[in-house]
Amino acid sequence: MGFRSLRVFQARALTAQTAETDAIRFLVGTQSLKFDNQIHIIDFDDENNMINKSVLLHDAGEMWHISGSPADKAVLTTCYSKTSESRVLTCAAVWRMPPEWESGSHESPDDSSNNPQTLELLCHLDNTTHGSVACVLWEPLGDGKRVISLAENHVLLWDLQESSTKATISSTATLEGKGQLKFTAGKWSPHHNSTQLATANDTAIRGWDLRSMSQIYCIENAHGQLVRDLDFNPNKQYYLASCGDDCKVKFWDVRHINEPVKCLEEHSHWVWSVRYNHSHDQLLLTGSSDSRVILSNMVSISSEPFGHLVDDDDLSDNEESQQEDKGKEPLQDSIIATYEEHEDSVYAVEWSAADPWLFASLSYDGRLVINRVPRALKYHILL
């Protein structure tokens, strides 16, 4: 199957709908100074290889980040710009889609792009004392009641009430030290009962324990320049991928932070986005200002280095030596494919929550491309 694509306005905010696992759906937030900003709901009809688009108005402003609730497919958060007393602030809010959009069916409401409806504002996640918000993160396996916002140099943990119409800050942490103390990215770990968070600021990556709101590790110069994005390996609890303006993608074992476990140098410009596949953690997507999306097979540091699921922690010393004695070589890492359908900086890549072999990428000119993992590799992994 070839790729499918469509264009929206200028955009950099993309998320997969995670609470809905039957339909393949992505949400895109636009960045337009001339027009009303919109959320484009992109439904992919796999059987007919078609993209269907519905449009919702987002009157609040141009979007820098968007994220869907893991528990309620109609609820999402956006981070957006607004001018307040002649300065531009990035604010955050929780929204609900109108009921007819929730279904994820491919019947979009009539004429949604000519007569778009507006999102319902549930609550603001603003605390203007903390400054501009970089991103909002939902508790990965949660019930949609806890989110984290990263605002300037503050980590804010919010509790959402039953209907998400009210949010209260339950705890905070502050980044202290010299230099430009401003979070650029963060990821809530799906491991350790959702008690850990990783953040990026400048060239550093930090780990936080959300129970005590204290720092648990710091990788000082993780990248040579600004760190843009982070993602946790879904199957290996201590493994983290990062990317940044030094054109590199690095893999870390946060128990041993002196050196990265691996480093990829396949992009020729800033790397904006890195994503592990949710089911097969050897598959890794990256998107860059070089206008390319790269799909890598990082099998040597995956949970299946010998072709079957194995976790370092599960192997006793005896078993580890037996594993080595067998002389079974770990499979080789490789670049599976480089996708060059974009003509502008690729700001975001996301795997579908409904189909582990399908992913979307978004470039700044508003082009959204949906692609598949090559069939031969899919069968190699499955068989």
UniProtKB/TrEMBL annotation:
Residues 9-295 form the EIPR1-like beta-propeller domain. InterPro entries: Beta-prop_EIPR1-like, EIPR1, WD40/YVTN_repeat-like_dom_sf, WD40_repeat_CS, WD40_repeat_dom_sf, WD40_rpt. Residues 305-331 are annotated as: Disordered. Residues 311-322 have a biased composition (Acidic residues). It comes from the Eukaryota. Gene3D superfamilies: YVTN repeat-like/Quinoprotein amine dehydrogenase. Pfam families: Beta-prop_EIPR1, WD40. WD repeats lie at residues 220-255. Keywords: Repeat, WD repeat. SMART domains: WD40 (SM00320). The keyword Repeat applies. One of its GO terms (biological process) is regulation of cellular localization. PANTHER family: EARP AND GARP COMPLEX-INTERACTING PROTEIN 1, WD-REPEAT PROTEIN. Belongs to the WD repeat EIPR1 family. This is Protein TSSC1. It comes from Sinocyclocheilus grahami. The gene is LOC107589760.
